[in-house]
Amino acid sequence: MFDEKKFQDEYKTAYDKISVNQDRITEIKEQSMEQEHFKLWDVVKPAVGIISVCAMVIILSTPVWAGVGNAYEKIVEIAPGLADYILPVKLADTRMGITMQVEAMQVDGNTGELVVSFADEESSEENLISGKVDLYDSYNLRSYGADSNVGGCSFMEYDEETGKAYFKISVSSEDVFDKTKLKFTVRQLLVESTEQEMWLDTDMLVMNPPLKEVSINGRGGAEQIRELLAEHFYKTEESFPLFASKIMDVVELDESMKDTIQVTGIGYADGILRVQICRGTLTDADRHAEIFIVDEDGNYGIRDASVSWQEELGGEKICFDEQWFLVSEAELEDLQLFAILHETDGSIEGNWHVTVNLEDGANVWIVPTE
Amino acid sequence: MKKSLCADDLEIIEKYSNMVYRMAYSMVKCREDAEDIHQEVYIRYLKKRPVFENTEHEKAWFLRVTINLCKNFWSSAWMQRVIGLTEETMAGAQEDLHDELLDTVKKLPKRYRAVIHLFYYEEMSVEEIGKVLGEKPSTVRTQLTRARSKLKELLEEE
Q1: Assuming Cys at both sites, which of A69, A300, A350, B118 could form a disulfide with A95, CB separation 3.0 to 4.6 Å?
Q2: What is the Cα–Cα distance from B113 to B93, expressed in whole angstroms?
């Protein structure tokens, strides 16, 4: 039954949380005050119109182009100046006292790598970037001019001498990168980041632990595994329109849980090895865990599925995860559990973005210049 | 074009910012694209400086321009051919579905997203939605009925 009122309440609550970054509003105001911007546009507009019409005519009347290329490539070929106007190369971006900078890039056929750094703005006296920085899930890669891309971003190192935190972005495409631009955006930086590696004490393992039903606010894992675990995710009157699931009932909440990350339980039931993690309140911080099962040959395996939910304590919401591993009871004997606990106490929202022309980095590592 | 912004402009930018951004986000489903559209809406406003008859007219103008820009965004040859990395590579995107309701609504066909948002979030009547979308109230009513039925289907699938 579609409960319209409930849906509306949930929908409004969800959207109330979404708001535009204040920086963007400031940016609009600043841009609007620059009369030159509009003068430039007034001059360029007719040219853009004419060139766009020409471009469309050529694209539409040239079947080979229309079939295999993409619009951005065509614009580059017809009017490179216009392509740069639409999507200008931008190698550095300073916001909130932090500069994101493209340090180097290399493209070899259909793979590309970029190194970007984050550092305090030159004139800044604050020490915002002073160690490991985490982007977690706040980055975005978008390519213009190539199809079927995949990519990712990983932390490389923090260089104390230069005060720069380096990240490597890898991207690959089915086709050779040619006339392709890549835009890399970071919404939020998590600073003051630490990570702690540890072997978990398998004596904590409880067979058939008590379970309790909660409304979950997230679940992870491959689609096939989710299908396999379908019976573990269901809807109840309370959970609607979200899912409910059963998690280990092994925690007594207390104040100390609000600002730390800890493993709160390990249990096994019905073919699922569960590792429960308390992540504290995440209002101004990020805490997350990577849990691995390690077999007798030293092979590391990641979780098959995960669920997350929240518990309320004194008006605040404490976040929990359970990472699930599908293993047989016999396998438990030789398994060990390894954890990396990531903790970040500060976050800075900036919406930094850089755009590079991958063609510029063909086959060699280069240090780009503006 | 005026050289500087007047107090009214600043007030309007502040007043409708979140409304425009949420409307755009509900349609294009990507924060970054929604921000670009949000910015474009204001550039259009500042270039055109439309004269509004009343607050309703003002609000409807911003919603209509936002929706039109979202439609342009979908239909541009550029966007149709570029397969962005947005959804594929946002680290952890599949790990943590922070709001499953929003994810479900995002699965609605594009044609229904605007009516759902205007009806349930902006709490506009069918007639008001018709004016914003340039559709007859009966068309809006039909779209809403279909959207609800699709939504019900999606929620049951989950």
Answers
A1: A350
A2: 22
Strand order in the sheet with A316-326: A205-207, A262-269, A272-280, A316-326, A305-313, A218-221
* Cβ contact A101:A119 at 8 Å: yes
Give me the number of domains chain B comprises.
2
Looking at the fold, whether B104 and B89 belong to one and the same domain comes out as no
Provide φ and ψ at A52, rounded to 5°.
Answer: -60, -45
B67, B21: one domain: yes
Chain A residues with CB under 8 Å of B154 CB are: none
CA distance A138 to A243: 25
> CATH no. for residue B80?
1.10.1740
Q: List beta partners, residue A139.
A: A186
Boundaries of domain holding B83: 7-93
CATH number at residue B143: 1.10.10.10
Q: Is residue B30 part of a domain?
A: yes
- For residues A296 and A327, give the distance between their C-alpha atoms in angstroms, rounded to a whole number: 14
Q: Is the pLDDT of residue A81 over 80?
A: no
Are the Cβ atoms of B158 and A15 closer than 8 angstroms?
no
Last residue of a domain, one of B72, B93, B114: B93
Tens-digit pLDDT profile for residues A20-70: 877 777 766 666 655 334 443 444 444 444 444 333 333 322 222 222 234
Cβ proximity of A28 and B12 under 8 Å = no
| Beta-bridge mates of residue B23 | none
Are residues B91 and A8, on separate chains, in Cβ contact within 8 Å? no
Q: Which of the residues B95, B154, B156 would you substitute to probe the A interface, choosing the one with the greatest number of A C-beta atoms within 10 Å?
A: B95
Please indicate, yes or no, if residue B41 is contained in any of the structural domains: yes
Name the residue type at position A253.
L
CB contact under 8 A, A20 and B21: yes
Measured CA to CA, the distance from residue A285 to residue B96 in angstroms comes to 16
Same-domain check for residues B11 and B75: yes
B15 and B82 in a single domain? The answer is yes
- State the complex-level ipTM: 0.82
Residues 6+ apart with CB under 8 A from A134: A155, A189, A190, A191, A193, A286, A342, A344
Tokens 């072997």 correspond to A199
Is pTM, for the whole model, over 0.90?
no
Question: Does a structural domain hold residue B1?
Answer: no
CB contact under 8 A, B101 and A32: no
Buried b (16+ CB within 10 A) or exposed e, B71-87: eebeeebbbebbbbbbe
